[in-house]
Structure formats: structure tokens, C-alpha cells
């Protein structure tokens, strides 16, 4: 009987240590996600102004810098955690500079992009690179925005021509975002391992 008590006493401190370690890991993850969400909101605001300078002939075009962070989330966190990142980024960025229509267009496009990136990452895990996942997400983002705008405003045929230009620029920026997403993920790995 006394032998059983010794085993329990020796195992119990390990359980406490493991529980504390799990809590520390969860806190580190929560802090990292919070920092990334903040960074994505900052990038989203910065993106709005830089895109106006880069593409003055396409007034609604955005480079999509905040998608770098969402792409990192797709590869680094659970789907639920990344979805929380998408929702918070959309809500916070639109509280700062958007209105209800901007929120509807941006949030629906971000959600479609997120779902597309998750599906591409899961289905093509062995073949897809972050660059291809970013391109799929960018394409779905533009198509969803165009569909929502068409549904709200009934623009008609001109949106198809405008959409073709947006899809072209989205392809280029999504490739760049994929490259940057790879580098940001490597940078986070270096910080965590040091």
C-alpha cells in the first residue's frame, strides 16, 4: 500500500509541471496570435494608403498586405484560431476606416479567401506551396468582392471588365504575398527557436 503512495507522490509533480508547461505554451500562442492580429490591422490600414499611390487608376484596389498574416495563420495555427484572426482583423480594420458596406464586402471576401486557403492547404498539402495557396485566396477574395458589389449595386457588364483587371493585379500581389508569408513564417520560427 505504501508503494502506491510513493508512485502517486512522484508522478503528481510531473503532472503539475506538464500542466504549467501547457499553460505557458498556450499563453505564448495567444500572445503571438494577438501580435499578428494587431500587425494585420496595421498592415490593412497602411495597405489602404499605399495602394492608392501604387494603383491610382484602380481606386478600389488593395495590395492585400494583411493577407500575409492570414497566410501565416493558415500554416501555423488551427483553423479555428485562424478564423478568429480573420474575423478580428476585418472587424478592427473596418472600425478604424470603414463603414457597414465596406465591412460587408471586405468581411465576406476575407471569409471566402480564408475558406479557399484552408481547403487548398488541406486538399493539396503535399503539392501546394504558400504561394499557390495565397494565389487561390487572392482570387477568391476578388471574385467574392465582385459578387457582393454586383449583388448590392447591380452594376452589370462593366464589373466584368473591371474584375478582369483586379484579378490580374491580384495574381501578381498574391505571388508576392506568398513569398513574404514564407519569410515571415521562417522569421517567427527563428524567434521561437532562439
Structural overview:
With 194 residues, this protein is mostly helical. The chain has a single domain, classed as Orthogonal Bundle (Arp2/3 complex 21 kDa subunit ARPC3), CATH 1.10.1760. The protein contains 6 helices and no strands. Helix 2 crosses helix 5. The longest helix has 53 residues. The chain is globular, with a radius of gyration of 21 Å.
List keywords for this structure.
194 residues, mainly alpha, Arp2/3 complex 21 kDa subunit ARPC3, 0% strand
Write the layout of secondary structure elements.
Layout: H1 2-54, H2 67-76, H3 79-97, H4 100-123, H5 130-153, H6 158-193
Helix pairs in contact: 1-2, 1-3, 2-4, 2-5, 2-6, 3-4, 4-5, 5-6
CATH class: Mainly Alpha
Strand count, sense and barrel status of the largest sheet are: none
Assign an overall shape: globular
List low-pLDDT spans.
4-9
The tally of structural domains comes to 1
In CATH, the architecture is: Orthogonal Bundle
CATH fold description: Arp2/3 complex 21 kDa subunit ARPC3
How many separate helices? 6
Order of helices and strands: HHHHHH
Q: Any idea what the radius of gyration is?
A: 21 Å
Average pLDDT, rounded to a whole number, is 88
Range of helix content: over 70%
Terminal-residue CA separation: 46 Å
Structural class computed from helices and strand pairing: mainly alpha
Q: How many beta strands in the DSSP annotation? A: 0
Proportion of residues in extended strands: under 5%
